[in-house]
Write a structure and sequence with these properties.
alpha+beta, Helix Hairpins, 2 domains, 13 strands
Amino acid sequence: MKKVFNIILCFVLVFVSMIPRYEVKAKTLGDIKKELAKYEADYLANKHEKQMTKEEIASANNQIKAITKEIDQIGVDIINLNNEIEELGKNIEKKKVEIEKILVFIQISNGENAYLEYAFGATDFTDFIYRLSVAEQLTNYNEKLIKQFNENIEKNNKKKIELANKKTSLNTKQNNLSRLVVDLNTRIEKLDDYNLSIEEEIKLRKEAIDLYEKQLGCKDHEDIETCGRNILPPDTAFYRPLQSGTVTSEFGYRSFWLNGKWISNDFHGGIDLSTTDNNTPIYASASGIVIAISRNQSCGKNIVYIQHNVKGETYTSSYWHLRRVTVNQGDRVTKDTQVGIMGGAKFDNDTCSTGPHLHFVVSTGLYLTDYHSHATYNARRINPRIVLNVPKMGVYFKDRITKY
């Protein structure tokens, strides 16, 4: 009876998943307007200040590189932990089914006496010895199964805690990087190829304020959380933004040829997806709201930014090197909404593209709601593989949902 109780006890265990949230301090629309006014005034006042020396730039880049390498490794650790947790979940479910069958057997056969009844049902002594051995093996198997089930649950919970700690560490590193790059952004002319000019950033901030006022009806005294975040349509997953294609470049440090020049040890803040069709439709990766569109940039051409609420976590995805944009700022989108056409070809006049592809970026938090600096958006980039299922580089996918 004690064993039966132990089996039943397995099914009342509570799984607790600790997932840290991206914490932000509440701000009103009026606060955001004041911040923008100060940012613009500081920029104009410091516009003609002397740029940093080569030594200062080298030192700053080394600091950025050290932090981004740590962020990159944490991202790899998170991907591995997610895979381990998923595999443990499958094993737990498999053993749960086996235990349920044992429970049914014990209930129907009036407890563990069923094993003895099976043994004493032998036709001769040889058969009796055989049946006794089978009964003993079944008993041992049941005990082993229960032990493995409990061990898997314990291991899974430890992995979830480890994952939560990794996410907390990632958030801390991103905040450190954000403070560094925001400070440097006005003093280094080209901090990141995938950063916007300050003039373009100011333009996007003004357009976001206009969106909150005119489309969302936010007032200066209202918390931006109340009138902004709550209108985000929730979703349960990210989907590949192309119907078919392959990964051509991963998130992290890389070296490559660009327009006849060898680029060494360059940090790539997203993943590149490409296909053979030069007019490939690009789709929103999840439900959300188009918060900003940056057009005709020397690097990235046309860029769409979409805010998301996926499984209660907030993100901002962006879609770079678009030849044409097919959405407007403020549009509500789903995973089936086409946001543009893939660009990046030579005739697109995109200085940081070697051929047709989508540069897909995912950052934590809501750009132009939780934070407003594009340098912060870049600092909060994560490896898209953390939230998006894509095959290994070079493996061709033929739809948006098949799991690899």
